[in-house]
Specification:
The chain is mainly beta. The chain is built from no helices and 8 strands. The protein binds zinc ion.
Length: about 100
């Protein structure tokens, strides 16, 4: 097992979890992806689609904000990478434009 750290999308503090050597991380988001199921860090998350992380920060000065964020693994179906049903862009903080047709 190795400890891998992830940056909280809210405050940027790092939170570490134990991972197996092989990593297929897709992204870290504030919201869960559609179609992904998330395990707690206390569960057997290597078999899940992702992990629900709580921003605890590390033991030093880097104190976490306590909010929940989501680490999503890459999923494969029939040998192809599965895309979220909602495009990833929609999860990010960027303006959305609705064009009238
Ligand atoms: Zn945070």
């Amino acid at each position: 097992m190795v400890e891998v750290t992830y940056h909280c999308p809210y405050c940027g503090a790092v939170t570490g979890i134990e991972r197996e050597g092989y990593l297929a991380d897709r992204c870290v988001t504030k919201e869960p992806l559609d179609g992904w199921t998330y395990a707690d860090t206390t569960d057997d998350y290597e078999d899940a689609d992702g992990v629900e992380l709580i921003c605890i920060g590390d033991a030093g000065d880097d104190e976490g904000c306590g909010r929940t964020f989501y680490l999503s693994f890459v999923r494969y179906r029939a040998g192809r990478e599965v895309d979220p049903e909602v495009p990833l862009e929609d999860y990010e903080d960027r303006p959305r434009f609705d064009f009238l047709s």
